[in-house]
Amino acid sequence: MPVYIPREFAVRERERIVGFMQKYPFAQLLTPVDGDIEMTLVPVVTVPGEQIEAYFHLSVFNEHWKKAQGRRSYLVFFGPHHYISARWYGDRRSVPTWNYAVVKAAGSAQVTDEEKKAWILRRLSEVFDAEWASWHMEREDYYRTMMREIVGMRFLVESLEAKFKMSQNRPLPDRLSAIEHLRGLPDGRETAEFMEGLLGNVE
After folding, report:
1. 36, part of any domain
2. Is residue 121 part of a domain?
3. Is 195 a member of any domain?
4. What pLDDT, in 10s, does the model give residues 142-156?
5. CB-based contact 157:105 (threshold 8 Å)
6. What is the domain-level CATH number for residue 98?
7. How many domains does the chain contain in total?
8. Nearest one of 124, 112, 114, 123 to 147, comparing CA atoms
9. Would the N or C end of the chain have less CB density within 10 A of its end CB?
10. Are 169 and 10 in contact (CB under 8 A)?
């Protein structure tokens, strides 16, 4: 299930893709099973290296972890996205579109041991709530009880595909106009900033 990526929107720099996965860590875990697709949303810790690894956890009651074990699966990371009005472009013959950024990591998942599972939870807390992590609640009995209700997963990334569709196929004045309009929308500022960050790629 490859991603359709026109040349203008392709991203191939590994470091840049990993940085995206770390900045937007809430991903879809997708596993093809018996003609259907299992899907679970998970916060992910991405660890770069010669072999990129991603770590997350699932509820022990969610049988997705059993089906994903050793089976080719996918983690899909979504960045900012927004509707782009044709009114923002200089050519009236333009059409509306949707700008977005996405990374698909393909690989296989394995259940971790208890030590690594504890590390996954600790790392997630350090990233998203450092103050709470400093309380060291993992020492509490209730925390240890809840630990038994989750399964730690280690995902070995075998391939990456990245698509940043942010109007790069449009003339520079159109891109700048879209950025300006997005900045004026409360829910459009992040997409505007992402688009602005790509302006250095203008040929």
Report:
1. yes
2. yes
3. no
4. 777 888 999 999 999
5. yes
6. 2.30.110.10
7. 1
8. 114
9. C
10. no
